[in-house]
Amino acid sequence: MTLKATASLPDARAFLADAPVLAKRRVAEAGSQSDSKQLRVAIVHYWLVSMRGGEKVVEELCRMFPQADIFTLVCNRDRISDFLKTRNIRTSFLQKIPGAQRHYTKMLPLMPFALEQFDLQDYDLVLSSESGPAKGIITRADALHICYCHSPMRYIWDQFHVYRHGLPWVGRALMSITAPMLRAWDVTTASRVDMFVANSDYVASRIRRFYDRESVVIHPPVATDDFVVGKGKGEFYLYAGQLTAYKRPDIAVRACTEAGRKLVVIGEGEQLPYLKSIAGPTVEFLGHQPFNVLRDHLSRCRALLFPGIEDFGILPVEVMASGRPVLAFDAGGARETVSSPQVGFRFAQQTTEALLETMAAFEEVEDDIDPQAIRAHSLKFSSAVFRDSLAGLIEQQLSHHGERSADVFRRRPG
């Protein structure tokens, strides 16, 4: 990929005598006499302890900028992809704390200090991947900082009481004390970002609400080529993902138990014992499964049941890439992905009754649904679309950033 800047800056270069501003020329010239590989690029991700949606974005950023260094608070190399293991990953002082790779979330009050210890003065382009704290890093004043925001931190904003309720009394007390300071830091550090990119319209609205900043929406990459359209009519309903309260897997379990429909549940989490206690004989729990098993079930299900609220929700797109429809709660990113009756149905209330009504409506037209049309819809969210969209945006921002930098130099006293 080549990023081209349109600015020609001979006047600005006349002022580039001192070493600290030599990198500014690299930004202004990116693509005019060189390509993006000449840029010094840093990718900042909150933590690398698993391979979920945020980590898939980091992989795509690394493919776009193979020379980039990765900065992260904590890394568990045993649980990241082989591709990421080949990258230059730099961790914070939190990595040295015993048990950090398992108990990193308990170190939230220390994370602002850890992030600000990263020295990014050498980097021209900083791409922060935000869901936990990541955007709060300190960049060089003339560097370009673009934040790809999966979500403002839920545990200090709109999901604060949900997360706090699940803690022991000591944790609740500590969270009550530290959350106001973390919110203030989170809002203040939004000003360190030159441009926000949101992964959905839903997240863009939350960025606007919490940070008072506008953003550009670019949906996250989905590896649609990894999935194939299943053959024949689906055999069962499917729920897949973490078994946590806010994802509401109980709605799917209760609905299929009540309707006597076969449901396969793939995933693990603290709600598993409770879900087993309310499940009938038609519900089967498989626990955590490797990707090939999940892919097989995505291609053979009647429909994915998606009763939670996700900022975007990659799994619905993956099941659509397998030619299967989605029955989703009408909120969050599902409004953007499950966008027509040809690919699925959305139910207005987050209740078992609403899902049962939607299942009945779906089953009336199930035989008329076209798997190839569903698959075609999913390609709008492919990795290639993500890379093209983000590359165009970065190219534009580098060009504008170079022009602004040149303007500053022209105004400098001679």
TrEMBL record:
Question: Which SUPFAM superfamilies does the protein's record reference?
Answer: UDP-Glycosyltransferase/glycogen phosphorylase
Q: Coiled coil: which residue ranges?
A: none
Question: Does the entry feature the keyword Transferase, yes or no?
Answer: yes
**Locate the Glycosyltransferase subfamily 4-like N-terminal domain: which residues?**
52-225
Q: What keywords were assigned to this record?
A: Transferase
Q: Name one GO molecular function term.
A: glycosyltransferase activity
Superkingdom of this entry's organism?
Bacteria
Q: Which residues form the Glycosyl transferase family domain?
A: 231-366
Instruction: Say yes or no: keyword Transferase present.
Output: yes
Q: What is this protein called?
A: Glycosyltransferase family 4 protein
Q: Which organism is it from?
A: Rhizobium fabae
Q: What is the lineage of its organism?
A: Bacteria, Pseudomonadati, Pseudomonadota, Alphaproteobacteria, Hyphomicrobiales
